[in-house]
Specification:
The protein is α+β, with helices and mostly antiparallel strands. It has one helix at about 70-90, and strands spanning about 20-25, 30-40, 40-55, 55-60.
Length: about 90
């Protein structure tokens, strides 16, 4: 059986990683805002995370301790305010 030349099965090109439209960060707590175009207009979603260092590497988690919760609430509040401001700038579609 002969080997198949790699040209017959080209490797798929990596898709560029989408970046958030906006970020809010206070200390180790971060919110990333994602813009989604829908047939009903623009919608925003947010993901919340806590950054931490594992050795020399920075990582993130969606788990929060007791001492993170007030800061998490502040980040969520600022994120909500930013999304509301964007929504007011967008023309309403019905």
């Amino acid at each position: 059986m002969s080997a198949i030349a790699p040209d017959y099965f080209p490797m798929p090109k990596p898709t560029p990683k989408q970046k958030p439209t906006h970020e809010v960060r206070l200390g180790a707590i971060k919110a990333a805002v994602w813009k989604n175009e829908t047939e009903n207009g623009v919608r925003f979603n947010a993901t919340l995370s806590r950054l931490y260092k594992d050795g020399d590497n920075w990582k993130s988690t969606d788990s929060f301790g007791r001492d993170d919760l007030l800061l998490l609430a502040k980040v969520a509040d600022q994120t909500h305010s930013w999304i509301c401001a964007q929504s007011q700038e967008q023309p309403a579609t019905t």
